[in-house]
Specification:
This protein has helices at about 5-15, 75-80; strands at about 1-5, 20-30, 35, 40, 45-50, 60-65, 65-70, 80-90, 90-100. By secondary structure, the chain is α/β, with parallel strands linked by helices. The protein is globular and about 30 Å long.
């Protein structure tokens, strides 16, 4: 899996995370379609959070531009390339992960 971190996201991570780390997992898209009680794979999206995950023993680890990236193995199974960027709305900032297969 190829992981890219955009410059603005990189600056945000280095400024806000004392560990210089992010964690990437799989989350369910809100309002996802259910099929016999199971959520379809198409409704799974990557989610990114600042810092090291509490479940790091279950995560893969990579270093991208001096930032440690912890990612769940299921992320690598679902996406081929992942780009972490910074989304801004007024005074709020949030890291987002965009995936391509």
């Amino acid at each position: 899996m190829l992981i890219t971190i955009e410059e603005s996201a990189k600056e945000y991570i280095l400024r806000k995370s004392g560990e210089r780390a992010i964690s990437i997992s799989i989350a369910q898209r809100p309002g996802g379609i259910h099929n016999h009680g199971e959520v379809r794979v198409a409704n799974q999206i990557p989610a990114v959070h600042l810092g090291k995950t509490d479940k790091a023993v279950y995560y893969e680890q990579a270093e991208v531009d001096g930032i440690v990236v912890y990612y769940h193995p299921s992320v690598a199974e679902l996406v081929g390339k992942l780009t972490v960027s910074l989304e801004k709305l007024f005074f709020m900032k949030k890291l987002i992960a965009r995936a391509t297969v």
